[in-house]
Amino acid sequence: MKPLSPLDLMLDTAATRHPHPDPHEHYATILDGCFAALSLFIIIAYHVSYYSWRWGYKTRGHHRVDLVGQRAREIFVRSLVFGDAGTAEANIVLQAVRNPITAESILATGTTVGATTLINIMLDSQKMEAVRQLGSADPLIGASTLFTPEFKMACAVSLSSLSFFSLAQSLRLYIHFGFFARSAAWVRKHPDEYSEETIEGMYADCCKTCLRAQTFFSLGLRFMYVFLPVIFWLLGSTYFLLGTVAVVVALYNLDHV
Q1: Is 188 a residue whose pLDDT tops 50?
Q2: How far is CA 104 from each of CA 67, 166, 213, rounded to the nearest angstrom?
Q3: pLDDT average, residue stretch 48-77
Q4: Sequence spans of domains, the chain
Q5: Would 163 disulfide with which of 95, 156, 206, 223, CB 3.0-4.6 Å?
Q6: Number of Cβ atoms within 10 Å of the Cβ of 86
Q7: For 59-77, what is the HEC assignment?
């Protein structure tokens, strides 16, 4: 047998250290990135189009839920501040403000539990290995992925945290709204003590507080909706894309009345 030359030995060593990449793995990695980018694009494009001025108050025969709620809250605040409701009726009206406070408290607790659970999984090497095994079951991509399970889990934790902070801010504003509304109603009933500018200013602040609380409540829910397909992302980008499409279709039907 002819001995190998030094050049042959170098080439053989380089081939051993850097084997030729598998074409299937290469294309699967590209497909993984495309699916993730497409999923992100679908979520962003839907919300950009939904909040665009082109849609207006009424779109394709349906009303946008957020604008319906905004106008209803403006009327609600005006009736509360400038109405002639008695004490009993006013208390019933304010009970309607306590209902979202209760709902947001429950939702915020749920997001905290979800984020804590995910963090505990990330800190456990055995559980993370199980997550990696789940991700390798993707029917189109397999185990080839551009994104580590830790990155996907971090995205899920971030969405859960953003949802918590949005709901907490909405909760804070609704608590202040109760005080603003009763104070504004009191000022309106005592025009001899307060100027008209003060009355209108308190009404404007009361209305802003209520509408801002609605905005943060909506943001908290939408972060929760996006959280769902990101969890499916742990199973693979194929499931991430399918979950994103399902959530956007559901949101399209939920966002209109």
Answers
A1: yes
A2: 20, 10, 11
A3: 70
A4: 62-136+164-216
A5: 223
A6: 9
A7: ECCEEEHHHHHHHHHHHHH
